[in-house]
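Quick start: what a row looks like.
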Amino acid sequence: MRLWTIHPQYLDPQGLVAVWREALLARAVLRGQTRGYRHHPQLQRFRAHASPRYAINAYLSGIHDEALARGYAFDKRKVGPVRRVKPISAMTAQIAHEWQHLLVKLARRSPVLRRRLRAIEVPQCHPLFMPVPGSIESWERGGR
């Protein structure tokens, strides 16, 4: 499961569809509707939020907005109720780590997109996240 901190505008079509599906799975986990992935480390930041369910809905909403901008037909009804929520802090080193991880994936899957993106030094975050100085998150594979 990869719930990207970076903005979904940078994802290739496969990445955007994958994060949509994974965020829907995360939503089901946070609602107690599945037995799998209950202890997935990337869910820690959503569980730590004052309103975990609204936070994951806000995350899904950001992905849905990007899908709409691209002309995709993601089902808005799957997002759930969206409320204004407090942003989740995102460590700058985590953002940089994810950026490099995405560029490696794009080198294989979508080299043309990678060439367009490689000049970006500081990518934007998903609208749910707010960058703050810090290291790679402890929940990240190979983190810290």
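That is the whole record. The chain has one domain: 8-132. The mean pLDDT is 93.
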